[in-house]
Amino acid sequence: MKTFVVSMIISAAAMAMSEDIMALKLGEPIGAISMTTLDGHPRVMNNYPEHKGTVVAFLSARCNATLNEIAALNKVVNLDENESMVFVGICSNPSETGEEIRTFCQRRGVVFPVYRDPDAKAAKQFGARWTPEFFLLDNAGQLVYHGGLDGLAPAVKALLADEPITTRETPVTGTPLDRPGPKREIDDPYGAIAFSSELIFTQIPGAPVHHCSSLSETPNGDLLCLWYGGSYESAEDQVLFLARLKKGDRFWSIPEVVVRDPDMPPGNAIIFKDPSNRLWMLWGRMEGSRPTRRGSGWSHCRLMTRISTDDGHTWSEEREWADTFGWLPRNPPITLANGQLVLPMSIHTKQESGSILVRLNPDGTTWSRLGCMPRGGQMTVIQRNNGDLFALGRSHPYILASESKDGGVTWSTPVQTSLKCPDSANCMIRLNSGRLLLAHNDCDGEDRAILALEQSDDEGRTWKNQKILEFEPNRAAGEYSYPCLIQTSDGMIHITYTCRRYSIKHAAFDEGWLIHVERPN
Predict the structure, then answer these.
(1) What is the pLDDT of residue 22?
(2) pTM for the complete prediction?
(3) To bridge 391 with a disulfide, which of 162, 192, 357, 381 should be the other Cys (CB 3.0-4.6 Å)?
């Protein structure tokens, strides 16, 4: 019974709308217009002298023509650079609630006020019959244009320029005002964004310099960050630090030393989770003779590992990885479509120099080496949809790219990309959406003062939508480098990187932050 009564009311309003319309004629004043806000507050519009002109648009959230013309209507709004006009939307369908209209306007980027006209009084004053239908009033409230959107734009331009309006009426097509259609869901193209960042620590006594971080999600959802720090790069007091961000927490734990060896200090290190949910800590043990220069010794490293089966709270004894002298880790592994875990690695020996992949064997403890990509150290790799591997390598002045069609056994000759690289590490991952995300130093010369994010929706063939994470105006100083990217099980994207060698910085964001630039305002 209640539904029948509501239906009768709506039908009655529609009949009144169609039978009692007084069409406003060109040159006639409209007078005061009574409406309600979307929240139900009464509103009377009669302030025409305050504006050069007033555009009234009859709209409906249930009208396809309205939906298709909102973006073009916003462009007409933007023609008024001096903001001397006012644009007003009116919805005369009694069945459309204020919340429905508001949701439609917000999700379609409407940037002008829209009101309800549930008893169709405003529609009758104008003689409106369609949605969308447009009326342009001058500052005396007189009708100077009526019709469709195509004719509205030149009419607005003429009014703003104090020129005669040559076309004052055009045909209107769309949806009958009294038959708007059923309610529907409206997608939200603007979405939402999430972003946060912080230093993992501000200072560690006895270790002023920090670099080369790696990041992993633990099986229980915590984050672990591993990096090296000491008096300076390659110092004898250089150690590996580990910090934890518990799931749901905002602050990182106090970093703890997990590897210390004054005779053969640890260098580049990574942390990652294998298919069995074990955590691996892998680092290059610097085996060059001592004393040595700052920043040297990287070609005399051997791989060392430790494993954790309790989310990184305890670790096995360190174990030497045989036949790995001259190898050095940097970027996290990836899992191939066949379930295999492959790990990129730099290699510098008398026989070869470049990057290789190593594959975790079925026993879960040993690794097999695959082929070498010549040139381009510190490879970062993804698997394309066709099964090929695509890798980017550190170089100068641009990043090098290579492909493998046989799972990493052989690699194409690396070619120079258009992506800048001041001989610094890069990191690339495939997001859950399928798009690629790359972090690199978009810098000329040798400085590392700009840390940028690039995106690709064609599997690395082209890159676009750059976002700058860090920028140091004093380009001769200030380093933001060695990024590590991961996407966690909740869909958030995390990055850690060296922050001026003082600390390690962590940022977290969602894909909305990458995709959506700015909401209409």
Answers:
(1) 61
(2) 0.86
(3) 381
